[in-house]
Design brief:
455 residues; 16 helices; single chain; mainly alpha; cell membrane; membrane
Length: 455
């Protein structure tokens, strides 16, 4: 087994950057799946982009149910790693793989057969309904592969190995660059599948990444050894996984649910507005990647230091990561504000109305990106000590108590019309950052959570 160094000693900045940079790169590359889809589907027209935009929030909602459990695996593994308990690192990893695999099979079947009513629920019009249903159904079969790679990625991050997942994602995205236009438009004997082709290309590459991840975990050569003998159902352990993972799943699903509700508000307007929202949402998903990268790195570093009993060092990790997120994402927001029009035009060329509306959306959101980064990083601190419920409550407050009501009121009760939906984003980002920071400064999080048994 190749030893993975602990991050409980040495320079915090160096540990944070070494962890965060590969995570950010891997997340950017993963986001490129959707960005590449949007680019090529934009060549089919605004309706193709709108159909995928309608599918994305529901897909994210389904994926979030498993994503929370993988985060719980990250927290447990990181704390056992910090405490020097390799036996429990391996056992926790094996149990997490088993649970996520079973869950992914269930969600794949549910997603496929519920595709049509779900698309109708979010308000898909007759001109985009069939494409959105087809895209969702094809994507559903990829849940198994996607979840298996996610659990591999999460476990590796828990022990501090962030390089190998990045390499695997890079390889699959490069392959997706070839397969996407091939399956969407066809070439030679290969027919074009249109919107469904984008999902087919993603499934092919996700399958390869999942296979690579499982081979590494079972080989035991990267700091974790997963084995079938440790996958026997352990009710007490699975109960702990769900106790910590369900709040995180609810956190992520509340985000997806809020995105779905926002889509339902947007679909009251024209398909051009839906397409503009889709482009803006894609940009937001890319911008949030650095914040998520530092958040995940913070979770792992805080978890390892908390497991080692180094609470003050864990707090220093939170302070530094928050500062970097605030400054870095504020700069990114400024750049996106200045180049909003050409960025929108890149995705949907030759459609002036969509370009204008998408650019306005980006410009309204951009100034709040730094605050969004602070909230994400502090959630990473809370997750690292096992307080996934705190992160969940902050998300629910930001998205359901603030964002949706503000979007509804401004779009329906003021002259802003659909631009009122745009304004709900910076308002909710700012208030969520204030709440997260206020709780962080109380220091209550330092007591941690009791779900993880003593090391």
């Amino acid at each position: 087994m190749q030893p993975i160094p602990s991050h409980t000693e040495g320079s915090i900045l160096k540990s944070l950057v070494r962890m965060a940079f590969p995570i950010i790169m891997a997340n950017i590359l993963q986001t490129m799946y959707q960005m590449i889809d949007t680019f090529w589907l934009g060549r089919l027209g605004a309706n193709a982009v709108a159909s995928v935009s309608l599918s994305f929030p529901i897909l994210f909602l389904v994926l979030s149910l498993g994503g929370g459990l993988t985060l719980a695996g990250t927290v447990m593994v990181s704390q056992y790693k910090g405490g020097g308990n390799q036996r429990m690192v391996n056992y926790s990893s094996s149990q997490t793989v088993m649970v996520i695999f079973l869950l992914s099979i269930i969600l794949a079947f549910v997603g496929y057969y519920a595709a049509r009513p779900l698309m109708q629920l979010v308000g898909a019009g007759p001109e985009v309904l069939e494409d959105s249903v087809t895209y969702f159904q094809v994507s559903s079969w990829g849940f198994i592969f996607l979840f298996m790679f996610f659990v591999f990625q999460s476990l590796m991050r828990g022990i501090g190995d962030v390089i190998m997942p990045m390499y695997i994602v890079l390889a699959t995205v490069l392959l997706n660059l070839i397969l996407d236009p091939l399956f969407i438009f066809g070439y030679g004997a290969i027919p074009g599948y249109g919107v469904a082709g984008a999902a087919m290309a993603s499934i092919a590459t996700q399958g390869l990444s999942a296979l690579a991840g499982m081979i590494i975990l079972f080989s035991g050569k990267r700091g974790i050894t997963v084995s079938f003998s440790q996958m026997k159902w352990d009710f007490s352990w699975v109960k702990r996984l769900f106790a910590m993972g369900i709040p995180s799943s609810l956190d992520q699903s509340s985000r997806a649910g809020a995105m779905t509700i926002m889509i339902m508000l947007v679909t009251h307007y024209s398909n051009d507005v839906v397409a503009a929202y889709g482009v803006g949402a894609r940009i937001l998903s890319l911008v949030i990647v650095p914040a998520l990268g530092f958040s995940i790195a913070t979770t792992s570093l805080v978890g390892q230091n908390f497991g080692a009993g180094k609470i003050e060092r864990a707090e220093k990790v939170g302070n530094l990561s928050s500062l970097i997120a605030l400054v870095g994402l504020s700069f990114v927001g400024m750049v996106l504000y200045l180049f909003a029009e050409p960025i929108t035009a890149f995705f949907i060329p030759n459609d002036p109305e969509v370009i204008r509306d998408g650019a306005v959306f980006i410009k309204i959101m951009a100034p709040s990106f730094g605050l969004l980064g602070v909230q994400q990083v502090l959630s990473g601190v809370f997750n690292g000590v096992g307080l996934t419920k705190v992160s969940m409550l902050i998300s629910v407050f930001a998205l359901w108590v603030i964002r949706f009501p503000v979007a509804f009121m401004l779009s329906n009760k003021t002259p802003l019309d659909y631009e009122g939906i745009w304004w709900a984003f910076p308002v909710s980002n700012a208030l969520a950052a204030v709440v997260a920071f206020a709780y962080y400064k109380t220091g209550s999080w330092k007591l941690g959570d009791k779900q993880i048994p003593a090391i």
